[in-house]
Amino acid sequence: MEETISLKELLQTLRKRLLLILSITFIAVLTSAIVSYFFLTPIYQSSTQLLVNQAKSEQPVYNPSEIQTNLQLINTYNVIIKSPAILDLVRKDLDLDMSTDQLNSKITVGSEKESQVVAITVQDPDPYMAADIANTTAVVFQREISQIMNVDNVSILAKAAVKENVAPVKPQPVLNMAIAMVVGLMTGVGLAFLLEYLDNSIKNEQDVEKHLDVPLLGVISIIEDANDQKSRGKVKAIKAVGGEKKNAV
After folding, report:
1. Most exposed of 83, 213, 221, 238 (fewest Cβ within 10 Å)?
2. Please, are residues 163 and 75 in contact by the beta-carbon 8 Å criterion?
3. How far, in Å, CA of 153 to CA of 86, rounded?
C-alpha cells in the first residue's frame, strides 16, 4: 500500500525533533561566525575609471559611428589592461613581490554600462595597496596604449582613494551567518525526517495499524490495583519493623 503522510504528522515530527533542528542551526551559525571573524582574511576593494577614445580626427565632435567603434573596442582594452605587457610594468613600478598571474587575479576590468568608461577594480588585503595597484595600472595603460594601439586620448576620470573607516568587501559575516542559518535549518529538518523514517519502533496503537496493516480492535491499558499497592506497602512496613526488632535483639 502507498503510504501517505499528513500535515499533522509532519508538524509532530518537527516538534519532536525541534531540539535537534535548533542545535544544528545554532552550530552552523556559530561556526560561520567564528570562521568569518577569526579565520578569513578581510579583502578591500578600490577602483579607478578611464575614458578611452580613438585617435583624434577632423570629423565632427559627435560621430555616432566613431562612438560605436569605441564601444566595440572596449573588450580589447580590457584584455590589454590585464595582459603581461601592462601588468609586468605595474609590478616593476610598485616593486611587487608577486607573479603576474597573482597580480592578474586581483584585478577586474569592465566597462561601465556599455559606455566608453573602463573601470579597473582591485581587491587586496591591504586597502592602500589595492588603491596603488589600481592607480598604477591606469597610469601604465595610459602611457603604453598609444604605442600598442595608436590611441592618444586616454583620460583618468577618477583615481582610486582610500576612504576613512573603509570596510572590507569580503568576507561578509552577516551574510555568511544568514546563509549558514538557512543551510542549518534545511539540514536539521532533513535529518529529523530521516531519523523519523528510519525509526521502526512501535510506540502507540497508531504504529500498530501502520506497521502491521491490520485494523485495531481495542487497547488494553495497564491498570494497577489499589489493593496491591496497599499490600506492597504493608509488606515493606512489616519488613522494616522486623528489621528493627532483629537489630534490637
Report:
1. 221
2. no
3. 17
User: In the block, which residue shows the cell 567603434?
Assistant: 69
Joined together, the cell numbers standing for residue 59 give 570629423
* Extents of the domains making up the chain: 44-158, 205-239
Are 82 and 106 within 8 A, CB to CB? no
- Mean pLDDT across 130-151: 90
Give the neighbor-by-neighbor strand order of the sheet with 107-111: 107-111, 117-124, 44-53, 153-158
CA angle 164-167-169, nearest 5°? 140
- Grid coordinates belonging to 62: 559627435
pTM for this prediction: 0.68
Position 247 scores a pLDDT of 44
The highest-level CATH class for domain 44-158 is alpha beta
What is the tens place of the pLDDT at every residue in 169-207? 999 999 999 999 999 999 999 999 999 888 777 666 666
